[in-house]
Design brief:
mainly beta
Length: about 450
């Protein structure tokens, strides 16, 4: 493979590998004062044929080191892949839980496994495993573990033998022996498989995160037809070991590229979530411009979660403000910013915006249009087709837009995190033109450069 020297797509503040394919965030935790963001990783290629855990670590959520390999598919019960999972701290040790994937003559068999570390780098795998309960296929993966009422709980994404999405529940008193408690939740709305479940309490709400997936009609089919990430509000009824829903599935992120989110609580008692910043199909992965540099995909920025107005809000962490190097403010009706970097932030404040507003970024590659009433349209140029594609959002009263733009990734927060939109885009030029038109009186736009001062 020929690697081009200059890379206009290398992100500044979105975590991505130096080589290979990255996907789901795994085992997010703050341990012994440091943040650990483990992740699915194929360090040997740009496909999904190999899975291990890689690891990013940081002391401040801005400056990150990649530790390389953390968990390898080197034992009988995970010989064909170390799949997604979670992490907890107990007795000053870091415990990670993951799915070991095996295949024998093309037949899949999965095991839920645990590994332990005293330093966050070297892990010892437990020999004890959890096998798939009766009534479910071997699409049984992505354990999330937490502690409540003196007991450890584990939920695992599942598929019933009738090919309906489900989540299974297990309990433990020692993190070694696990008891199957039955199906935690299963509904037709989970499509044919539920991946990457998460459960947590936030304010007075109980949240179940789900990733419904439609698969082929073949039981062991491997082609994902569609999938997305959402959350359900409800109640964990511990008497009957079930989750009772009180809402429909609500999208976590409205954008093109968001999946497999995982949350954790840090030492500041913040509930933080990170997602995989991709929903690329096969053609988009193969045609992704970063493949010329031998790597693929990135993670979203960490977001703090809040429960407000009976819904989930997501806001960028305060630590991101440290990236701001200089500010330029405009209150003109129409104007342009001369961006000196591919990484920047826009903060748009709207006051009684009742006429159309358009914001063009990255030399016209990404565009936001608001009709002045309730319709917000966000678009990009698709790097495979070369055509503009768009998504439409309904926001009855839009008063704020905050945009975090990286070299090839963009995240948009609306109304202080009421809605979020994530997408990849690819623009070769280092200088990224930004222009807007239609800003009404008393509105303002702040441009923050992330370029280091020389």
């Amino acid at each position: 493979m020929i690697i081009i020297k200059e890379n206009p797509y290398r992100n500044l503040f979105h975590l991505e590998p130096d080589r290979g394919l990255l996907n789901d965030p795994n085992g997010l935790i703050q341990f012994q004062g440091r943040y650990y963001f483990f992740h699915q990783w194929n360090r040997f290629g740009l496909d999904h044929g190999y899975k291990e855990w890689g690891a990013f670590t940081s002391s401040d959520l801005n400056n990150w080191d990649h530790l390389g390999s953390a968990l390898l598919p080197d034992s009988k019960e995970d010989s064909d892949g170390v799949y997604s999972g979670s992490a907890i701290e107990h007795d000053n040790k870091l415990y990670v839980f993951y799915t070991g994937n095996t295949k024998n003559n093309g037949t899949r068999k999965t095991y839920q496994r645990m590994a332990c570390s005293s330093n966050g780098c070297t892990f010892i795998k437990s020999e004890k495993v959890i096998e798939t309960p009766n009534g479910f296929t071997e699409h049984h993966r992505d354990p999330k573990v937490w502690q409540s009422d003196g007991k450890w709980w584990m939920i695992v994404g599942a598929q019933t033998i009738e090919q309906v999405g489900a989540i299974n529940l297990f309990s433990s008193t020692d993190l070694e022996e696990w008891k199957y408690e039955g199906a935690f939740y299963s509904e037709q709305t989970l499509d044919q498989m539920c991946e990457c479940p998460d459960y947590f309490q936030l304010g007075d709400a109980e949240i179940l995160v789900v990733c419904p997936q439609k698969r082929t009609s073949l039981l062991n089919g491997n082609e994902n037809i569609s999938s997305y990430a959402g959350y359900i509000v409800g109640t964990f009824e511990k008497n009957n070991k079930r989750f009772r829903p009180e809402s429909d599935i609500i999208l976590i992120d409205e954008g093109f590229d968001f999946y497999a989110p995982q949350s954790f609580v840090d030492e500041k008692n913040r509930r933080i979530v990170v997602g995989w910043m991709s929903r690329m199909d096969e053609a988009e992965e193969k045609g992704c411009p970063t493949t010329a540099f031998n790597y693929l995909h990135c993670l979203t920025i960490p977001r703090e979660l809040f429960w407000e107005n009976d819904r989930l809000y997501q806001r960028p962490l305060e630590e991101l403000k440290m990236l701001r190097k200089k500010r330029n403010t405009s209150t003109e009706t129409t104007a342009a910013f001369l961006s000196d970097s591919a990484a920047y932030e826009l903060h748009i404040q709207l006051v009684n915006q009742t006429t159309p507003l358009e914001i063009s970024m990255n030399n016209g590659n990404t565009v936001i249009r608001f009709d002045g009433r309730s319709k917000l349209v966000i678009s990009r140029i698709n790097w495979v087709s070369g055509q503009r594609e768009q998504k439409e959002l309904h926001i009855p009263k839009l008063f704020e837009i905050q945009i975090f733009n990286d070299s090839s990734a963009m995240e948009i927060f609306m109304n202080k995190g009421e809605k979020v939109f994530s997408m990849r885009y690819f623009c070769e030029e280092e200088q990224r033109d930004i222009s807007y038109r239609g800003l009404q009186e008393n509105g303002s736009i702040d441009y923050y450069s992330y370029k280091e001062e020389v």
